[in-house]
Design goal:
single chain, alpha+beta, two-stranded antiparallel sheet, two-stranded antiparallel ribbon, 2 helices, binds iron/sulfur cluster
């Protein structure tokens, strides 16, 4: 799926870019229950092994790949920021 575009309006994320575009090469979206229970390092690297869950509404989902622009976590992140 090379033609995928992710639009995002969370502007303090390291992967956010002008035009409200996500420049992460991959992201993990989860339901809020999972997002609030799991640490930040549970992200795309482990996505294939995670058990999927349900959300019921769009307001109950979150982006697990979100990271602030100044976070130390960026250094250990396996996600690449595309140009
Ligand atoms: S990683 Fe998530 S929060 Fe960050 S810009 Fe992409 S979609 Fe938005």
């Amino acid at each position: 799926m090379t033609d995928q575009h992710i639009h995002c309006i969370v502007s303090d994320c390291h992967y956010w870019n002008q035009g409200n575009k996500c420049h992460a090469n991959e992201i993990l979206v989860a339901n809020d229950a999972f997002g609030s229970q799991q640490p930040d390092n549970i992200d795309v690297a482990s996505a294939g092994q995670l058990t999927p869950g349900t959300a019921g509404t769009c307001t109950a989902t979150c982006c697990k790949t979100y990271v602030t622009k100044d976070s130390d976590q960026i250094k250990s992140d396996t996600v690449k920021r595309m140009p």
